[in-house]
């Protein structure tokens, strides 16, 4: 029986991939100038980034229960199993809301096999998990096999990312305003990662050249076999920087593939323009 996949907008997957593979899609919400939008549906990331450069502070919120219910009901009515690979529960309430909605739907459709995976990943870290799950679906794996494999995949996902201006993290409450002020004066670039689904700072470096060198060093320290690795790079209105990082990664590690895609509004509203994030599997 066909197993269907569901993803949310915080996976930062290309729209073409979502559409070509008929993946159920759940947009998170972004509020700007008092108006609420659906990430990638009624607002695009470039609009958010320009607003942030103009000093505005967009807010984000989890996907609505109604939207989640509509997507889940579609597969329940088909009578076919589905897996939702959700944005980290440590960064959004979307996962918890999805679990609540799923329990309600199963009262009406008790035979509906719906699995909800807390990826504990963000952006293309979650997106790579969805891509991996899609391969398993095409290969005819059972829903139990897919769920087990995806959970293992997510547990190995490494996030390394940096932001161009720490002030954006301060506005979102991710770091103190004092740290942001000092960091901006000294051209300090933070390196952060995601640990158990939550944002954690690792190091601070001055200047992009040192930053890139250290990111490559960290990748070497954390990685295993690159020959079969797909590396993800997500970026925020800085594609040239992402392309430069891609070239350096390819020269240093020769991975199977490097995928680039823009960060969406839901993630970008917190990290700001100039964000660069790298995703790969730990051994």
UniProtKB/TrEMBL annotation:
Record-linked Pfam families: DegV
Function: May bind long-chain fatty acids, such as palmitate, and may play a role in lipid transport or fatty acid metabolism.
Example GO molecular function: lipid binding
Keyword Cell cycle: no
UniProt protein name: DegV family protein
Signal sequence range: none
InterPro entries reported in the protein's UniProt record: DegV, DegV_C, DegV_domain_contain
Keywords, in A-Z order: Lipid-binding
NCBIfam families cross-referenced by the UniProt entry: DegV
Superkingdom, natural source: Bacteria
């Amino acid at each position: 029986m066909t197993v269907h996949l569901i993803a949310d907008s915080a996976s930062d997957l290309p729209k073409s991939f979502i559409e070509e593979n008929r993946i159920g899609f759940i947009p998170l919400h972004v509020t700007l100038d008092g108006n609420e939008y659906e990430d990638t549906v009624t607002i695009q990331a470039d609009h958010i980034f320009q607003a942030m450069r103009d000093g505005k502070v967009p807010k984000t919120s989890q996907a609505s229960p109604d939207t989640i219910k509509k997507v889940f009901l579609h597969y329940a009515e088909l009578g076919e199993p589905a897996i939702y690979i959700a944005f980290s529960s440590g960064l959004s309430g979307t996962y918890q809301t999805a679990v609540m909605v799923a329990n309600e739907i199963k009262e009406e459709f008790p035979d509906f096999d719906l699995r909800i995976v807390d990826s504990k990943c963000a952006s293309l870290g979650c997106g790579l998990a969805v891509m991996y799950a899609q391969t398993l679906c095409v290969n005819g794996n059972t829903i139990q096999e897919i769920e087990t494999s995806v959970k293992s995949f997510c547990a190995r996902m490494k996030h390394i990312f940096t932001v161009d201006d720490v002030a954006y993290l301060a506005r979102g409450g991710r770091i103190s305003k004092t740290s942001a002020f000092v960091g901006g004066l000294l051209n300090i670039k933070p390196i952060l990662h995601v640990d158990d689904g939550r944002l954690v700072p690792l190091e601070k470096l001055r200047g992009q050249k040192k930053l890139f060198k250290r990111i490559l060093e960290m990748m070497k320290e954390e990685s295993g076999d690159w020959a079969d690795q797909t590396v993800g790079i997500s970026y925020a209105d800085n594609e040239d920087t992402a392309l430069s990082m891609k070239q350096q990664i390819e020269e240093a590690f020769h991975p199977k593939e490097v995928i680039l895609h823009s960060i969406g509004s839901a993630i970008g509203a917190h990290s700001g323009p100039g964000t660069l994030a790298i995703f790969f599997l730990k051994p």
